[in-house]
């Protein structure tokens, strides 16, 4: 750990103040902060990013430690004191006696005075929803604590361009250690956080940054060469690119989204990937007339639904403070409407996959069960069966349910459904 300096501490405090207004996602706030402060060195930038994300990750506990004065300065001091620094290291930034006493108190703070939700670093409403769904307290704690860790860097190898072993060897030659991901046949987990996007492996489309969980969702869709496929909520195309690769750049892959900006971000990625089977299509809603003309024609449809993102807290810890139970109510309406509309595209015998990066049952099983009850023409296919067909040994039951403490990836949910009639 580099020594604490006035300059780095005050810069981190400025960035933290901006992030704690929760006007924008923390990563966007940080990018802007770094753009506005171009003279910051790489060590200081790393310290600032770790401080802002660290405070967000531990904020429920830090709030309790700070109690009456949970100011950004106190939160940051408490975070740094809990990160294994001894009190002498604070001399360059702390001169007041009351702050010295505060820091000593942070070190002595006992977690057993906290509620279960606070110890799990989850909002109370999230903890209550998980407990009400039958999750045991110790599992809630393990889940919350795993979500409060930083995520590793996972890459997906574009096997249209290179083999996984060759990419691993090239990374090794660049000085980056990596290992094959436990489940995905085209994933690599990299040690540390190298700025991979400067290397030709990235610029020439041999790799994409993608959590292993997302890679498994693509395998559940399992598109084949020559098929007609839709990625209904394609966004910037993380899963579109994977599906296109699985289709070996044949057939047709529609990438729908209502966000022009996100689809625009897909374009350069598409160019790097070398895929020629992808058709990005901006739609005005899930009921856009351009969708209706594809009714009953598609072999596979993925609905990677807009969701609370509660499974991605390792990357977006500020979502804990930017989402709410009422917000999830609204998302539920959208999720159900998108799934119902997307389902109309699936042909008889075709496959529909509903997925989220949420751990909340009402965004997951809740939506799928209601859909199946209203649409008897669809039936659930066990996710484990599909994964076994793809030679992935992972059985989480009928649904794919991934959690960081068990699977090492973000929290994901997916249900595979087949259209019978
Ligand atoms: C979870 S994100 C998709 C992430 C993307 N599949 C990926 O792998 O990078 C959900 C997406 O749904 C889009 N969306 C929201 N409402 C929609 C609608 N009514 N129809 C289609 N897409 C929608 C959002 O713009 C967002 O890009």
Automatic annotation (TrEMBL):
<dbReference type="InterPro" id="IPR049560">
    <property type="entry name" value="MeTrfase_RsmB-F_NOP2_cat"/>
</dbReference>
<feature type="active site" description="Nucleophile">
    <location>
        <position position="357"/>
    </location>
</feature>
<comment type="similarity">
    <text>Belongs to the class I-like SAM-binding methyltransferase superfamily. RsmB/NOP family.</text>
</comment>
<dbReference type="Pfam" id="PF01189">
    <property type="entry name" value="Methyltr_RsmB-F"/>
</dbReference>
<keyword id="KW-0949">S-adenosyl-L-methionine</keyword>
<dbReference type="GO" id="GO:0003723">
    <property type="term" value="F:RNA binding"/>
</dbReference>
<dbReference type="Pfam" id="PF22458">
    <property type="entry name" value="RsmF-B_ferredox"/>
</dbReference>
<dbReference type="GO" id="GO:0001510">
    <property type="term" value="P:RNA methylation"/>
</dbReference>
<keyword id="KW-0489">Methyltransferase</keyword>
<keyword id="KW-0808">Transferase</keyword>
<dbReference type="InterPro" id="IPR023267">
    <property type="entry name" value="RCMT"/>
</dbReference>
<dbReference type="GO" id="GO:0008173">
    <property type="term" value="F:RNA methyltransferase activity"/>
</dbReference>
<protein>
    <submittedName>
        <fullName>RsmB/NOP family class I SAM-dependent RNA methyltransferase</fullName>
    </submittedName>
</protein>
<dbReference type="InterPro" id="IPR029063">
    <property type="entry name" value="SAM-dependent_MTases_sf"/>
</dbReference>
<keyword id="KW-0694">RNA-binding</keyword>
<feature type="binding site">
    <location>
        <position position="304"/>
    </location>
    <ligand>
        <name>S-adenosyl-L-methionine</name>
    </ligand>
</feature>
<feature type="binding site">
    <location>
        <position position="257"/>
    </location>
    <ligand>
        <name>S-adenosyl-L-methionine</name>
    </ligand>
</feature>
<dbReference type="InterPro" id="IPR054728">
    <property type="entry name" value="RsmB-like_ferredoxin"/>
</dbReference>
<dbReference type="InterPro" id="IPR001678">
    <property type="entry name" value="MeTrfase_RsmB-F_NOP2_dom"/>
</dbReference>
<feature type="domain" description="SAM-dependent MTase RsmB/NOP-type">
    <location>
        <begin position="143"/>
        <end position="420"/>
    </location>
</feature>
